[in-house]
UniProtKB/TrEMBL annotation:
One of its GO terms (molecular function) is lipoic acid binding. Residues 1-78 form the Lipoyl-binding domain. Pfam families: Abhydrolase_6 (PF12697), Biotin_lipoyl (PF00364), E3_binding (PF02817). PANTHER family: DIHYDROLIPOAMIDE ACETYLTRANSFERASE COMPONENT OF PYRUVATE DEHYDROGENASE COMPLEX, LIPOAMIDE ACYLTRANSFERASE COMPONENT OF BRANCHED-CHAIN ALPHA-KETO ACID DEHYDROGENASE COMPLEX, MITOCHONDRIAL. Residues 72-115 are annotated as: Disordered. This is Acetoin dehydrogenase dihydrolipoyllysine-residue acetyltransferase subunit. It comes from Rhodobium orientis. The lineage of its organism: Bacteria, Pseudomonadati, Pseudomonadota, Alphaproteobacteria, Hyphomicrobiales. Belongs to the 2-oxoacid dehydrogenase family.
């Protein structure tokens, strides 16, 4: 059995990405649970990532100097030594990525004067697959960051004539990325239990909704404007095609993106989505926006889960501290007033779901106390419906293995 070394927000700091500084262990070496195994660097400081489980370092998926998005799997720990653990480091690559028998090119810092190239993980992966040297590109993103669109615009280097044909990564087609959109009051780290279980042949893209997490877009009170802001961010990242996964408010946004036509949506996974009925728990919205202590916030966070799942001790205190650092609750109050006036969902998306001609699933916890699971029956006959016993409003946190399996099925079908 393997255990992912997952990159999440550390110390309450919101981050979009980090740079791997060093690994304290080599593949094949023993590690103890809690022992520092990798050091990463944020915009503010270096952070130490502990081993989540005792065992043996099996894989290093991000090399020193490479950039990784929040939610990425940096490496894997196995219960037993792996025969492949001593393989050359060049076989490692950002995760998740398509299988590739071609050795990875030398790190840019070693190739050209030691200068570190700033690029998104998706841009790095595509550049590697096409034989494009990132040093030759001029990034159009913030602070010159190279994005996928910059790689797409570059001419690929010719491949050696004797190169062996690449082995297929599996049935997932063209490694179209999976875009994850979280719910009201959450941020991209809400997917931390699911992302490590997503097929390694695809790249996960985690988006913070406007007014949430590390988004530089403030409160937006009109649903159509929220959708437009997310579409603009996807465009900025150079994403023209994707599998979409959305939860709650993010589910409504994902469904609306299908109708907008700005990107080619290959498949859609909706988890307790907004937009399929008018009802929503107004007490939950008010509690999230107005709680001033961990004790008053905790009951509303607990309301998100079913009886079979308990949030970690101290979770409410951590969430509240992060919100207070960014004045998030004021933003939540403004957005709730516009998106859910009178505790009623303002978005009407049943007809969009009915018109879909792509693989789609709706996942809903039968114990959902935020949005009634009965809304799931608004789905048309062509949409797969999965009612999850024992789960509440956040099945991706409560039943991550099943959630990931259903997402992977869609990615293979789309």
């Amino acid at each position: 059995m393997t255990h992912p070394i997952t990159l999440e927000s550390a110390g309450g700091e919101y981050m979009e990405s980090v740079v791997v500084v060093e690994w304290t262990k080599k593949p094949g070496e023993a590690v103890a649970e809690g022992e520092v195994v990798v050091v990463v660097e944020t915009a503010k400081a270096a952070s130490e990532i502990p081993a989540p489980h005792s065992g043996y370092l099996q894989e290093i998926l991000f090399q020193p100097g490479e950039e990784a998005d929040i939610g990425s799997v940096l490496g894997r720990i196995g219960d037993e030594p792996s025969a492949s653990a001593s393989a050359p480091a060049e076989s490692a690559a950002p995760a998740p990525k398509a299988a590739d028998d071609t050795p990875a090119p030398a790190a840019p810092s070693a190739a050209k004067g030691g200068a570190r190239v700033v690029a998104t993980p998706l841009a790095r992966r595509v550049a590697r697959e096409r034989g494009i040297d990132l040093h030759d590109l001029r990034g159009t993103g913030p602070r010159g960051r190279i994005k996928l669109r910059d790689v797409e615009a570059a001419k690929a280097a010719p491949k050696p004539a004797a190169a062996a044909p690449q082995e297929s990564a599996g049935p997932i087609r063209d490694a179209v990325p999976v875009v994850f959109l979280h719910g009201f009051g959450a941020d991209k780290t809400a997917w931390s239990r699911v992302v490590p279980l997503i097929d390694r042949a695809v790249t996960p893209i985690l988006i913070d909704l406007p007014g949430h997490g590390a988004s530089d877009v403030g409160a937006i009170a009109r649903f159509d404007d929220v959708v437009e802001a997310v579409a603009a961010e996807l465009d900025d990242k150079g994403i023209t095609a994707a599998h979409l996964v959305g939860h709650s408010l993010g589910g409504g946004v994902a469904l609306a993106l299908c109708g907008l036509g700005r990107i080619a949506v290959h498949s859609l996974c909706l988890i307790a989505p907004a937009g399929l009925g008018p009802e929503i728990n107004g007490g939950f919205l008010d509690g999230m926006a107005n709680a001033r202590s961990a004790e008053t916030l905790e009951p509303w966070l607990d309301a998100m889960t079913g009886d079979d799942f308990a949030l970690q001790s101290g979770y409410a205190r951590t969430v509240l501290r992060q919100w207070q650092a960014r004045d998030t609750q004021k933003t939540l109050a403004e957005m709730a007033e516009g998106l859910f006036p009178g505790n009623t969902q303002s978005m009407r998306l049943v007809s969009v779901l009915a018109d879909l001609a792509i693989p789609a699933k709706v996942l809903w916890g039968l114990d959902d106390r935020i949005i009634p699971s009965a809304h799931a029956f608004s789905a048309s006959a062509g949409v797969g419906l999965h009612l999850m016993k024992g789960a509440g409003h956040v099945p991706h946190m409560e039943q991550p293995a099943l959630t990931a399996r259903l997402i992977n099925e869609l990615a293979r079908a789309g």
